[in-house]
User: Which sequence fits this backbone?
């Protein structure tokens, strides 16, 4: 149940649990000022909460009868000039779990109820402070742990994406009115003059919906972190390389071939972009069952990675197995948009690069010594280029699965409309697809919502937001 | 180094780490308004931070050049009307670790420095917003996890204790001036008229210092939780009783005598008072080394407990061992202020109380069935009475070890002064003890401080407080 009875005044702790200098308790609803007035005494005796001005702060005490609970600062935000659009009161108290609990108890005793997760933001949405995709951006903003995921969320919060969706809906509505015009004339059997105009409009819509949908593959990896797999034959220095990249000893490094059997995941932040490094068991032909599982997992990881770092040992005399691997990986990632980078390791063992490697390698290859941490920075730079070449311009990048699904369905409907136009289907049939497209786009910004949609969005919020 | 250069503007996150709706970052010092002005743009374009009014709130954005960091609320508190007594700015941002870090970086880039733990409160103390014992009360208030420890801290924060210490110092200064008078006349060999007045004053001071010092034993157990030991012969139901009291299965319950070898500690909150329950290995004559250690530990626990619950089995025919235990415990706790409560367990096994127990027990005895959880509430009530009978009246109860130590030293000095008066020592000698007493009392409220004292107090604070 994610409708929020606007009659209720809700309260919650908005800061994390734990002992700290400050804790913040938030109250929203018509009774906020009345309820705080029952327990708060400002140091300025002439102050009453019912006469509080918006955006003012008041020092005083919260008490229950004779029992002094805390010295607090109370902020007032009057409707509609608040986060939720309702009267909001924020209590800044000492960051003691006991004090937070006692204040909440008093608020509830005087008529407030505990807020559900995300209920403050839900009310802000219901009061048209922002649309649904912006509300989702707030949750993403709070969860963002890298510059790029933060910037994606901030851009979505600023409403550029919402404006694009609204423009698409406007274009669909324009199409609808042109269609109605045609309907009016069609009975007179007059071929509608501007049928090409209609088709052109649909093609524009199709292209925009399609490009937004496609941006998800980038948006999702940027938000979640770009998956990078380090692979190669056993003992070529994969774990040593991962360690050099992470600059700390997290993966098991050993001289025994096949030691690293479990995929280890580690996260590296390069210039605000998160890369998820996946170390693998390597590509050696397995000699026992456990190793078979390791090799299978390696191929699974390769198929999921955006960048594959294939490591080989330049002191290796036989290049056939290396060529075999490169071909197999290239085959595996064909048409996936993934990128293969070859890493020639162990430059410390040789004075110069063996001739057979110069000939072998026609692809981008970085020669390093993982052991001595030489040229490892070139790998970081190469990884970063793989993001920048995908350049994040002014167009929106979607990173939300719900938006991706809605855009996919909208795309189907628009595609069906274009097909219908081609096949000169009846206006009635076209209208069904039109309504479907409008519906799916409307769910993104929340013009169309259901309890299910609201529930799944706001239940993922923090308490107190 | 716990002097705080007042030229520095300091900043810190004041809310706990973690992802949440709101995070609060605090800035204090002369440059606060200047620094926030560099990164904060209010939605009201006419607003400038240098013209901000005290106790006002402003919505806007924090940015670094083109990079939008967050939508925030900024509060201004102008000197001296702030927590620290300096200009204070509080930034209420989204509770994202990334955003908190970025804002801190920007504040530091524009001239603030990261605050030490407790440095805001240290500045408040140095700016005479409160004295040292009140500053300590703030740390206690934040750490308080029960009503009684909260109330102790709140009472100390309100300054009653500080006032008592100041009064003691005033009385010592009064004594000093009377002593100087005597000194003036002494050369004329005139016996000073009011020597008895001097002695009376010292006795008053002695009594007050002594009673404050003695309140520590109560204050400390109230703050830390009152230690309660459950003891008795093996298999009389000690663990079952503890479980019944805790209303959950935390201690190991078994039919095998001597199973509970390790002391288990559990905490129970009864009407806002914390009791720390210590289950023991029991008092059986040990049959192996491990049990010997268990029994030794039991005696150690008994000597540290404020309340000893001695459990015996009323279905036991032989009462001699029980009498033996009761006598041994009574002997152990003589003059310690600890309390022994006898618990006759297993009323479920008998229809009525055997005659020999009626005769045996002259002390307070509670008959229960731990197994059926019958009359267990009578134990809770009895425990609570043991606190209330110690009644916490209007006099201060000290719960801080530093205060206890300072009072102990002051008591020694005052005792030495009385002895000196008795022995008609020279005024010069009396003055040495007088200065010592003034010094020790002064360290409590902070009239006298050293870097060491400030360091040990403020380093225990939260960051951002």
Assistant:
């Amino acid at each position: 149940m994610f409708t929020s009875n606007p009659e209720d005044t809700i309260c919650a702790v908005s800061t994390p649990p734990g002992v700290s200098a400050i804790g913040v308790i938030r109250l929203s609803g018509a009774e906020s000022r009345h309820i705080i007035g029952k327990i708060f005494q400002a140091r300025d005796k002439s102050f009453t909460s019912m006469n509080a001005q918006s955006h003012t702060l008041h020092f005083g005490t919260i008490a229950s009868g004779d029992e002094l609970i805390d010295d607090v600062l109370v902020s007032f935000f009057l409707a509609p000039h608040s986060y939720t659009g309702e009267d909001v009161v924020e209590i800044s108290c000492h960051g003691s779990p006991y004090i937070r609990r006692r204040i909440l108890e008093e608020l509830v005793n005087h008529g407030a109820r505990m807020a559900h997760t995300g209920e403050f933001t839900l009310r802000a949405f219901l009061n048209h402070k922002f649309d649904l995709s912006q509300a989702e951006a707030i949750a993403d903003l709070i969860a963002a742990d890298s510059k790029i995921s933060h910037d994606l969320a901030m851009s979505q919060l600023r409403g550029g994406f919402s404006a694009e969706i609204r423009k698409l809906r406007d274009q669909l509505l324009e199409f609808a009115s042109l269609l109605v015009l045609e309907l009016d004339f069609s009975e007179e059997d007059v071929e509608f003059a501007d049928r090409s105009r209609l088709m052109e409009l649909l093609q524009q819509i199709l292209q925009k919906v399609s490009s937004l949908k496609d941006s998800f593959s980038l948006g999702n990896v940027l938000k979640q972190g770009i998956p990078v797999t380090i692979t190669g034959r056993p003992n070529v220095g994969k774990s040593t390389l991962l360690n050099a990249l992470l600059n700390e000893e997290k993966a098991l490094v050993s001289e025994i071939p096949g030691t690293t059997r479990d995929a280890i995941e580690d996260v590296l932040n390069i210039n605000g972009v998160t890369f998820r490094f996946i170390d693998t068991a390597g590509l050696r032909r397995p000699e026992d069952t456990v190793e078979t599982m390791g090799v299978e997992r390696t191929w699974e990881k390769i198929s999921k990675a955006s960048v594959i770092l294939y490591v080989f040992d330049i002191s290796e005399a036989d290049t056939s197995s290396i060529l075999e691997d490169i071909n197999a990986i290239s085959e595996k990632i064909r048409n996936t948009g993934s990128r293969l980078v070859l890493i020639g390791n162990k430059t410390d063992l040789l004075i110069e690069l063996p001739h057979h490697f110069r000939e072998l390698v026609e692809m981008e290859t970085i020669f390093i010594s993982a052991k001595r941490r030489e040229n490892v920075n070139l790998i970081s730079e190469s990884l970063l280029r793989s993001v920048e070449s995908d350049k994040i311009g002014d167009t929106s990048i979607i990173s939300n699965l719900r938006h991706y699904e809605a855009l996919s369905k909208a795309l189907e409907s628009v595609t069906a409309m274009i097909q219908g136009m081609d096949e000169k289907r009846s206006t009635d049939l076209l209208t069904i697809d039109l309504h479907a497209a409008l519906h799916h786009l409307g769910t993104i910004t929340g013009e169309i919502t259901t309890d299910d949609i609201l529930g799944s969005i706001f239940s993922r919020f923090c308490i107190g937001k």
